[in-house]
Design brief:
The structure holds two protein chains of two kinds. By secondary structure, chain A is α+β, with helices and mostly antiparallel strands. Chain A is built from ten helices and eight strands. Chain A folds into two domains: 109 residues, no CATH class; 325 residues, no CATH class. Chain A has a four-stranded antiparallel β-sheet. Chain A has a two-stranded antiparallel ribbon with strand order 1-2. By secondary structure, chain B is mainly α. In chain B, 66% of the residues lie in helices and 6% in strands. Chain B contains seven helices and six strands, in the order αααββββββαααα. In chain B, the strands form three sheets. In chain B, strands 1-2 form a two-stranded antiparallel sheet. The longest helix of chain B is centred in the N-terminal third of the chain and has 55 residues. Chain B is rod-shaped. Chain B starts with a helix and ends in a 10-residue tail after the last helix. The chains are: A alpha+beta, B mainly alpha. At the A-B interface, helix 2, helix 3, helix 8, helix 9 and helix 10 of A face helix 1, helix 2 and strand 5 of B.
Chain lengths: 464, 304
């Protein structure tokens, strides 16, 4: 055993406990840092040196040489992280979809009595009133006004839905840029992490940063992590490696055939099918739901136009004109309009079944009856088609809400468990710092005693 | 379970957020009085409410139609009543002028009376309901009867046989008018074997002036026929009026029941809402109190 063993042992304790204090300080400093996993210090006793020169007895080898820090471990659970990321992606997807759908819901249903259904009811009412007063000019004007209102309601809805879709569209480019920035950051971190691991060092903070980026990418795209045995994790999107090692593949946003932005791989131009995350939610609303609503509105408008016109053409106006259209023919929800002939002169509105019959409101009656006739392709009336669309928008929002609620619950539970394992507890760190401080003080004491003992040998033995 | 500092803060945020969200939802119900403020609050309920609203609008329109039709029928009925009286009066004159008892002067006076009656009937035949001529069929914008003084035929009908139908129910269209050619037998519309009422009256006038008893008798028989037809038509109008009244009552009942259904579907039960609001407020207060306790400084404030 060496002369200075005592001092060296105490020194090792001072150093180790100072490092532990620094780690605790690091944890406390990062109590609010996103994605920070608390770091735990692992002490281990340093092995005994073989005694120099003395017989191989039992005693000498048993005296240890102090303490060393084995590793500074990141407290975390890999599997939990993977699960958390995937539920994060799901939650993000449905939250994004629901936000967009809520906006659409308020477009379709501004309030009871203000929706397209109410406007159509007023239109049918006006035909009814006209049927009992076909010669009345103010009844004709009222009908024309209601016709204009129905047409502009349809056009307005279409415009606002399209505007919603293009709003969603305008965010795609920025999102893709965010993905590219994040993936190139991950590639850089991968390089630094492998270097550090190669040198035997533990790059905890780099690992934390990378985890945060993984989480964000999962939230945006639903990408998953695949960790090959003994290797670095690969970020997998749609079957292709988005980030592997130092290499990050870029994505681009380009206008597609529909005129809306599509996300493609920059290297081969193939399309990316988003499996989850914000982008999947956005695409779902923009590419599936909005077009569905638009096509239902088109069906309703086209049926309205053709049915009303078919009857109107057979009727006679106050001015004895016949074979006129009420709505501009061949239009759908985007461009439905009252025909110019009617706009110019309300007397052209056909109410009678024959000429010179001003009191005959039978054609107006027939048109009013379209209100309840099953003229839509599905065998419902136009009003019923609207009511169905109205209910289904509400349903779509509700379904998204239900998905969010269940995903949120799971996500929250996982988040809690993650925090429980990896989160910093100030109380805990405090208690540990007290521990380390005591150990440090004690080690300093031991050093002093060892020093005094050496002093006895050096200064007092064999001095004359 | 190990609790980290962030978990405590996060749980404070989450539960406060949830309590506020619940209160907000209930407040909205209380403020609007509606349980369903947007389709997603209850999609099936919202759809049903939309259906009820549409049905309500339909029923209200039918009620309006029925009221208008009733008005039209009333005017027609009043006109017919007047015409019936005048035809009876003409018949009395005819009786008075027949036989040997009447002098030439008396018969001349009676003839003049008949002419007055004919003109009066023609005026009533041109009655209008708010500017629409009620006895013209579909030709409602111009007076359908034109007096052709001194000529034959004495009155010309320029209307048609159109029947105006008013819809007072999803499957009930009712006729509200009587076309003039039916009422007065113009152009033999009601009875091809007979002349129209005005021609009959004209014939009667001529017969009285000439003292032609046989002709007077023929005219009198024709007047009886006209009278019978007019009275039966009046009966027809009366029963249509009854039908309208029944329809109006029924529509009222339907409207009421639709209103009740709509209210049940989308109105908020304010008593329940108030109780819920109170509960949520209590929950919120409790959460706030707990949050205050959790937010107090921990061990780190006590050491050192």
């Amino acid at each position: 055993m060496s002369t200075f063993t005592g001092i060296i042992t105490a020194l090792s304790s001072l150093q180790a406990h100072m490092q532990a204090m620094d780690t605790a300080g690091h944890n406390v400093a990062n109590v609010n840092t996103l994605g920070y996993r608390r770091q735990e210090v692992r002490f281990s006793a340093r092995g005994a040196y073989p005694s120099a020169g003395s017989a191989q007895g039992s005693m000498a080898e048993l005296i240890g040489n102090g303490v060393t820090i084995d590793s500074i471990r990141r407290a975390q659970d890999e599997f939990l992280n993977l699960h958390f990321n995937s539920t994060g992606g799901e939650l993000s997807r449905w939250t994004t979809a629901q936000n967009a759908l809520k906006e659409i819901e308020s477009i379709m249903a501004p309030g009871p009595g203000f929706d397209l259904g109410a406007t159509m009811d007023k239109f049918w009412d006006a035909w009814q009133f006209l049927s009992t007063n076909p010669e009345d000019m103010s009844a004709r004007s009222a009908l024309r006004a209601n016709g204009i209102a129905v047409a502009s309601s349809f056009r307005d809805l279409v415009q606002r839905l399209r505007w919603s879709a293009s709003n969603i569209d305008s965010t795609i480019e920025n999102t893709v840029e965010e993905i590219n920035r994040a993936t190139s950051q991950i590639a850089g971190l991968n390089r630094d992490i492998s270097l550090a691991l190669g040198e035997g060092r533990q790059p905890n903070d780099l690992l934390d940063q990378r985890d945060v980026l993984f989480q964000r990418i999962a939230e945006i795209t639903g990408a998953t992590l695949i960790t090959p045995a003994g290797g670095q994790p690969i970020l997998n999107l749609n079957g292709k490696a988005l980030v592997q090692g130092n290499l990050a593949l870029e994505l681009t946003a380009e206008p597609g055939a529909s005129g809306y932005m599509e996300v493609k791989w920059a290297d081969d131009g193939s399309a990316v099918v988003m499996q989850g995350g914000e982008l999947a939610g956005k695409f779902q609303v923009r590419d599936q739901m909005i077009p569905q609503y638009l096509s239902q509105l088109d069906d309703m408008a086209a049926t309205l136009v053709s049915q009303v016109n078919a009857l109107h053409e057979q009727g006679f106006g106050l001015d004895n004109q016949t074979d006129l259209d009420f709505f501009t023919p061949g239009t759908n929800a985007a461009n439905i309009a009252v025909d110019d002939a009617i706009l110019n002169d309300v007397r052209a509105i056909a109410t009678a079944a024959a000429a010179d019959s001003p009191g005959d409101g039978s054609m107006a009656l027939a048109i009013a009856a379209l209100r309840t006739q099953p003229v839509m392709a599905g065998g419902t009336s136009i009003n019923q088609a609207w009511q169905y669309l109205y209910g289904s928008v509400g349903n779509d929002v509700k379904v998204a809400e239900d998905y969010i609620n269940s995903a949120q619950l799971i996500h929250d539970q996982l988040s809690s468990r993650q925090q429980s394992i990896s989160g910093v507890s100030l109380d805990e760190e405090m208690a540990q710092m007290v521990q380390y401080q005591h150990a440090y003080d004690a080690a300093a004491r031991v050093l002093t005693v060892a020093d005094e003992m050496l002093g006895t040998i050096i200064e007092q033995m064999g001095v004359h | 379970m190990r609790i980290s500092t962030a978990m405590m803060a996060h749980s404070v945020q989450t539960y406060l957020g949830r309590a506020t969200e619940n209160m907000f939802k209930i407040q909205e119900q209380a403020a609007s009085g509606l349980r369903i403020n947007r389709p997603s609050d209850d999609p099936t309920g919202a759809q049903y409410a939309a259906v009820l609203r549409s049905a309500q609008a339909e029923v209200v329109q039918y009620q309006r139609n029925a009221e208008e039709g009733t008005q039209f029928l009333k005017t027609t009925d009043a006109a017919l009543a007047g015409i019936v009286d005048m035809v009876r009066s003409a018949r009395d004159s005819a009786l008075a002028g027949a036989g040997n008892g009447a002098s030439r002067e008396a018969r001349s006076a009676l003839a003049s009376n008949i002419e007055q009656i004919s003109n009066a009937i023609a005026r009533v035949a041109n009655s209008d309901e708010a500017g629409r001529f009620i006895f013209g069929g579909f030709k409602t914008v111009a007076p359908p009867f034109a007096v052709n003084a001194g000529a034959v035929p004495p009155v010309i009908y320029s209307g048609d046989s159109g029947i105006m139908m008013f819809q007072i129910g999803r499957a009930s269209n009712v006729a509200v008018n009587l076309p003039g050619d039916q009422v007065f037998n113009m152009n033999g519309e009601a009875n091809p074997a007979m002349p129209d009422l005005f021609s009959t009256l004209n014939d009667l006038k001529t017969a009285l002036l000439a003292g032609d008893d046989a002709a007077i008798n023929t005219a009198t028989t024709q007047l009886d026929d006209h009278l019978a037809r007019l009275i039966s038509m009046r009966g027809e109008v009366g029963s249509r009026q009854q039908g309208m009244e029944l329809a109006v009552n029924q529509l009222s009942a339907v409207e009421f029941s639709l209103k009740a259904s709509l209210s049940k579907t989308e109105d908020a039960d304010l008593v329940k809402v108030m109780i819920d609001l109170q509960q949520q407020q209590n929950t919120y207060q409790a959460t706030v109190n707990v949050a205050a306790i959790l937010s107090r400084p921990g061990l780190w404030a006590r050491l050192g």
